[in-house]
Specification:
This protein is α+β, with helices and mostly antiparallel strands. It has three domains: 167 residues, no CATH class; 84 residues, Helix Hairpins (Orthogonal Bundle), CATH 1.10.287; 148 residues, Histidine kinase-like ATPase, C-terminal domain (Heat Shock Protein 90, 2-Layer Sandwich). Strand 9 and strand 10 form a beta hairpin. Helix 7 packs parallel to helix 8 and helix 8 runs antiparallel to helix 10. The radius of gyration is 52 Å and the shape is rod-shaped.
Length: 455
């Protein structure tokens, strides 16, 4: 099952927003903890302020009353009601609620404020007890003030702080999501414009793309441009090949037609027999050209290594020489084959390698001219390479003529061949990691095919 591919816009949106959302959760959790801590500190300070104010009023009023400002502070402190209880010297009740919340095991901390939590009328309260040295009516003793507040008020205050922080974080995330969503769309606009420009092109327009794109997309456009250039080159070469093939096949086809008409119109049996032999030769020539064209086309399209195997170059050369030797000798030429003394293992497609060697021998026979009297095939090795040379003593071939001699349908002088033999041999050598070269020679022509050894 293929994975579902989302749009680039969605991918960027998720890649950007996902970590931000996780960060928002972490910040939210941190804000809740901070809000709780802030609430605790604020309410504890409120209790301390209320206790100090009550203690001050007790001293000022001689234990009789609490000032109105202090009552206002107690009623409105931090948004929650504060309860209080005060005792004077000897522990006598002075003012406030009669029964303050207490817990067992509370130690005497001297004059330091003491905070603790205790139940009070079915609720949990936060309590502060503070003891101070006071003088009332010439009597100096300790006075204790106990103040407390519901913890539910603290929790509500902390929750309100956390909610405000959460709303702020949520608004920021939503705003950022909208900015990212529409920002990515705007950022991808040049790519969408590029898509529209390419879609408007005709199938015949393979020119390079010149539209300005963002830096991140320049590599893609450069790759597409290289592909377009290669495609245009391949199409041009293919069209040229088809045109050349049609031109090369026209003459053999016309010759076959002419010979067939000559056989049909022959006036005698001897003439018909003679014309039939010429017709067969013309048909073979036409089939040879067609097969060479197909081989060259397969080599150009990368099918040359489809049946690569480990073979001995000497054995392949021996088979080719055996098959071609009779035809060479029938022309009254000397034919020699020197296989060397050591094995020449190469990784190659045997069919194409045979085709290349056959073309080299045929080229020597077809283009040697009237001075040709000998064709010699030899093989050997040089370092990590195996080589096979086809030499003759004909009219010769110079290394300076390599470009024309190895081109398709290229012939230095008019001859009976198709001009594809050496082009195929050079393509076979190149596709197998080797090369074909024209050797300098005092007389005749010498061509060497080199392939890497498979050791």
């Amino acid at each position: 099952m293929k994975p579902r591919v989302t749009s680039l816009r969605q991918r960027l949106f998720l890649l950007i927003l996902t970590p931000l959302f996780m960060m928002g959760l972490l910040v939210g959790a941190w804000r809740v903890a901070v809000a709780q801590q802030t609430s605790e500190q604020l309410f504890d300070r409120t209790l301390l302020s209320a206790a100090l104010a009550i203690s001050r009023d007790i001293v000022i009023s001689g234990g009789d009353a609490i000032l109105p400002s202090t009552r206002q502070l107690i009623s409105d402190a931090a948004g929650g009601e504060v309860f209080y209880h005060a005792t004077g010297p000897g522990g006598y009740y002075i003012t406030g609620y009669a029964y303050p919340p207490t817990i067992s095991g509370l130690s005497n901390a001297g004059y330091e404020p003491v905070y603790y939590e205790a139940p009070y009328r079915g609720e949990t309260v936060r309590v502060l007890r503070i003891t101070e040295r006071v003088t009332l009516d010439n009597l100096t003793s300790d006075a204790t003030v106990t103040v407390w507040q519901r913890t539910s008020d603290r929790t509500a205050f902390a929750r309100a702080l956390a909610v405000r922080a959460g709303v702020l974080i949520g608004v920021l995330l939503v705003t950022l999501a909208l900015v990212v969503w529409f920002g990515v769309e705007r950022g991808l606009r040049p790519l969408l414009d590029l898509e529209d420009a390419i879609a408007m092109r005709s199938p015949d327009d393979l020119s390079v793309i010149k539209r300005a794109v963002p830096a991140e997309a320049r590599g893609i456009v450069a790759t597409v441009n290289r592909l377009l250039v290669q495609l245009e080159s391949n199409l041009s070469a293919h069209q040229t090949f088809i045109s050349d093939a049609a031109h090369q096949l026209r003459n053999p086809a016309a010759a076959v037609q002419s010979m067939a008409e000559a056989v049909r119109d022959a006036g005698s049996e001897d003439e018909r027999r003679k014309r039939s032999v010429e017709l067969v030769e013309a048909a073979r020539s036409s089939a040879r050209v067609a097969n060479q064209l197909l081989s060259l086309d397969r080599l150009r399209h990368g099918h040359e290594m489809g049946r690569a195997e480990r073979v001995d170059l000497r054995d392949v050369a021996a088979e080719v020489c055996t098959a071609s030797g009779a035809g060479v000798l029938s022309r009254g030429l000397d034919f020699e084959f020197d296989a060397g003394q050591c094995a020449l293992p190469v990784l190659a497609d045997k069919v194409f390698l045979t085709e290349a060697l056959t073309n080299l021998i045929d080229n020597a026979v077809s283009h040697g001219g009237p001075a040709l009297s000998m064709v010699r095939v030899s093989a050997g090795r040089d370092g990590q390479s195996a080589w096979l040379t086809v030499a003759d003593d004909g009219k010769g071939l110079s290394p300076d003529d390599k470009e024309k001699a190895f081109s398709r349908f290229g012939q230095l002088q008019p001859a009976g061949g198709s001009g594809l033999g050496l082009a195929i041999a050079a393509s076979v050598a190149s596709s197998h990691g080797g090369s074909l070269r024209i050797d300098p020679a005092a007389t005749g022509a010498s061509l060497t095919l080199t392939l890497p050894l498979d050791l």
